[in-house]
Design goal:
Alpha/beta knot, five-stranded parallel beta sheet, 20% strand, globular
Length: 164
């Protein structure tokens, strides 16, 4: 299985990118022992359309194109969304495990643009995940997503990183 962090928008070089890559590197190294052959990050340009709904549609189209090229099918991605479920890290790890054990070859965690996801696109997700009720800057959401990917793998591996 391969795991992908797919983001609308490009993260500039600097501390935020370094920290996100740090967690993805850790996930990549640990993931091999759990049957996760790759943990990769992909970035898609934000839409320049004027209306929010048009931006969401264009970004959904770009996401579908990228995911098709990566082999990620409908139902094999998690949408980070403010209206998503609030869950604990062990609950997130369990959802990841179920998708992996169901035979998903590729799984993606998606972070949308400033306007969020197109509703039709979001409905295709395995589930939607919220990082609490607060609004987070895109850079921090990306770091938190990368860390939660790593944390989910540590939970599944029984590694002491996650302490309940």
């Amino acid at each position: 299985m391969r795991f992908h962090l797919v983001c609308i928008g490009r993260l500039k070089a600097g501390r935020e990118r370094e920290l996100a890559c740090h967690y993805l590197d850790r996930a990549r190294n640990l993931g091999r022992s759990l049957g996760v052959s790759a943990v990769d990050m992909h970035e898609i340009e934000e839409s320049k359309a004027r209306r929010a709904q048009d931006r969401k549609r264009e970004e959904a189209k770009a996401l579908r194109t990228l995911m098709a090229g990566l082999g990620i099918s409908s139902g094999c991605f998690i949408a980070c969304d403010e209206a998503g479920e609030n869950m604990t890290s062990p609950q997130f790890a369990e959802r990841f495990r179920r998708l992996r054990d169901a035979g998903a070859n590729d799984l993606a965690l998606l972070i949308g643009g400033p306007d969020g996801f197109d509703a039709d696109f979001r409905s295709e997700a395995a589930f939607s995940l919220a990082f609490g009720n607060l609004t987070w800057p895109h850079q921090l959401a990306r770091i938190m997503a990368a860390e939660q990917i790593y944390r989910a793998l540590t939970v599944l591996a029984g590694h002491p990183y996650h302490r309940a």
